[in-house]
Every structure is written in C-alpha cells, then in structure tokens.
C-alpha cells in the first residue's frame, strides 16, 4: 500500500528492462489513468480496513486481504507463465521481506484502525518516505545526506506533530492506535532496505518475487490468526466484501498496476502515488465514514507530504563534455 515507498512492492532493479533496445509492450490504457486508479485504490484501502474491522478481528482482516491478493497474483503469474523463484537463500530472504512488507504492516494498520480514524491512518502511511530517508542514512552508505533532504526530514516530522496536535498535548488522540500506524509505516522502509541489501539482483522477475512474497505472508498469517482469534460465528456481508476488495484490489491489482507503472515510466514517477494516498484517504473517511476533520489534519498532511518530497530530492550531477584531441 505504500511505495518506498509505498508503497512499491518490487525493487526498481527487478523491473528494469534488460536492454534499452527492447520494445516495451504496447499499453491499451494510458499510464496516467493507471496512476490515478492506483492512487484511488490505495487511498480507499484505509476505508476498507476500517469497514473490515467492524465485522472481523484485525488478524482475520489481514489474512483475508492476503488470501485475495495472492489469488490475483497467482492468476497473473499463470497467464504470463511465470514461475516462483528458486533457491533456499531467496526464499529465506523473501520470508523476512513478507513479514516486514506485508504481514506486519497490514496487521498493525488493522489493529490501529480499531481506535483511530482511517484518515489518520492514511496520513501516518505517508510518513514512510521520512522513515526511509532516516534509515537509509544509517543502513545504506551510498545515500549521502544533503541539506535539502535533512530539511525535508525535519519538516516532515513537524507535519506529523501538527497532525497529532502536539501543542494541545495530543488531546483526544489514541496514543496506542497512532503508534501502531506509525510503526506500520516504519516497517515498509525497513523491509525495502532489507530487500535492497539481499535480493536486489536475484535474477527473478518482479512479478515472481512479489507473488512468492505474498504467498509467504499468507502462510505467516494463516499460522498466527488461529492463535489469537476465534473462528467467526457469523459472516457479515459488508465487512467481508470490504476485505475481498482490500485484497483483490488494494493488494493484488494494485501490485500489478504499480509493476506496470515502474516498468513503463520508472520508479521515480511511480512512487509519486504516495503523495495522493493521504488526500484520498482523508476525503473517503470524511465523506463516506463521517469521520471528524479538524484544521490541523489537512495542514499537517500537506507539511508531511512536502517534507517527504524533499527527502526524495537528489543532487544534480553536472555532466562534463570531453573532447578528444586527434594528433596527426
């Protein structure tokens, strides 16, 4: 649901064409429409989580989400005749990635929305680029801090404090639910840094790796859910439909859309979807769930997004033209 964004679910190197001379497949739908669809799907995911938890336990919501999402990717892999990756080392690293990028954050957001509005959960999700930038300075030696990026980090967390109403002593805020949502957003960049350091050059396709990752996350939740929840005695329809949509659209279809966007327009453009998610999540929560909205929420969200955008800024590298002297 987030790209590192985010939100992305596959490393950029895994979706890069092997040669610039290869033709990209012709798309029937313009990438801008698919970008808008991905923004809407991920933006509404927080509303679907909230509706799902009204009828089922958080772990059950996450398990159902993963089951439906994995089914969509399995169908896509069958159509494209993709195979699951091979090698014990690859599967071991994917098990860790499945926990950090799927099982853990999906479950944390589900538990968080028991006590906080979906609007706040969506805004907390937008802090992932901030966490990612802070962690990359420590874990990735090639990511050097710049004044702009450090300023963006400070500005982003100032926006978080604005959203939470720090000057009021966080009055009326559920600290536990908010902490769970922020921890979920932190889990995404931790998982991406782990993938980048272990499986960046695995040789398998992005679709194959993501399918295996979701399959492993489903297995993890299938083991955990019976230990902490009882089998439902009734199956309310609306929450069940919300879970199905959350999995099939918010996890399965969204991954395929992002996979195509990264391949077509590159990871930098594709990850811009991160900045639309909290806007859509806030609008959906206020309009459809009648969630309260104070002035600090949209103002703080704008500050968070501005800070996140600055943390993604890269210094320009001047190009030097070299002239070759020919001596006769």
Question: What can be said about this structure in brief?
Answer:
The protein has 328 residues and is mainly α.
Which features would summarize this protein structure in a list?
single chain, mainly alpha, 328 residues, 13 helices
Gross morphology: globular
| Biggest beta-sheet profile | none
Distance between the termini: 62 Å
Helix fraction by DSSP (H/I, runs of at least 4) = 55-70%
Tally of individual helices? 13
Indicate the mean pLDDT. 82
Low-confidence stretches: 2-24, 319-328
Number of strands: 0
Radius of gyration: 20 Å
Order of helices and strands: HHHHHHHHHHHHH
Structure classification: mainly alpha
> Strand portion, in percent?
under 5%
What is the topology?
Elements: H1 3-6, H2 31-53, H3 58-80, H4 88-112, H5 118-125, H6 128-139, H7 147-164, H8 175-198, H9 206-228, H10 237-265, H11 267-270, H12 277-289, H13 296-311
Describe the structure.
With 328 residues, the chain is mainly α. 68% of the residues lie in helices and 0% in strands. It is built from 13 helices and no strands. α3 crosses α4, α5 runs parallel beside α8 and α6 crosses α8.
């Amino acid at each position: 649901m987030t790209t590192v964004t985010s939100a992305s679910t596959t490393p950029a190197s895994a979706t890069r064409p092997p040669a610039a001379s290869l033709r990209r497949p012709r798309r029937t739908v313009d990438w801008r429409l698919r970008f808008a669809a991905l923004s809407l799907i991920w933006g509404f995911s927080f509303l679907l989580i909230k509706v799902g938890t009204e009828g089922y336990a958080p772990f059950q919501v996450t398990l159902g989400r993963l089951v439906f999402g994995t089914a969509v990717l399995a169908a896509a892999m069958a159509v494209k005749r993709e195979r699951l990756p091979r090698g014990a080392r690859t599967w071991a690293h994917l098990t860790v990635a499945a926990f950090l990028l799927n099982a853990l954050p999906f479950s944390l957001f589900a538990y968080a929305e028991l006590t906080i509005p979906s609007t706040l959960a969506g805004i907390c999700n937008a802090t992932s680029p901030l966490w990612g930038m802070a962690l990359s300075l420590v874990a990735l030696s090639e990511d050097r801090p710049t004044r702009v990026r450090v300023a963006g980090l400070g500005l982003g967390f100032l926006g978080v404090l604005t959203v939470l109403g720090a000057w009021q002593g966080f009055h009326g805020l559920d600290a536990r639910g908010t902490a769970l949502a922020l921890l979920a957003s932190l889990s995404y960049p931790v998982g991406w840094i782990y993938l980048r350091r272990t499986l960046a050059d695995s040789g398998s396709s992005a679709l194959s790796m993501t399918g295996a990752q979701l399959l492993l996350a489903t297995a993890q939740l299938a083991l955990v859910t019976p230990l902490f929840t009882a089998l439902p005695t009734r199956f309310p329809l609306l929450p069940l439909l919300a879970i199905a949509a959350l999995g099939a659209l918010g996890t399965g279809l969204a991954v395929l859309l992002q996979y195509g966007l990264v391949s077509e327009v590159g990871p930098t453009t594709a990850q811009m979807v991160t900045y639309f998610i909290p806007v859509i999540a806030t609008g959906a929560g206020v309009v459809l769930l009648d969630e309260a909205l104070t002035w600090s929420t949209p103002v703080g969200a704008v500050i968070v997004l501005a800070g996140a955008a600055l943390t993604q800024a890269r210094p320009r590298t001047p190009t030097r033209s070299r002239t070759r002297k020919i001596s006769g």
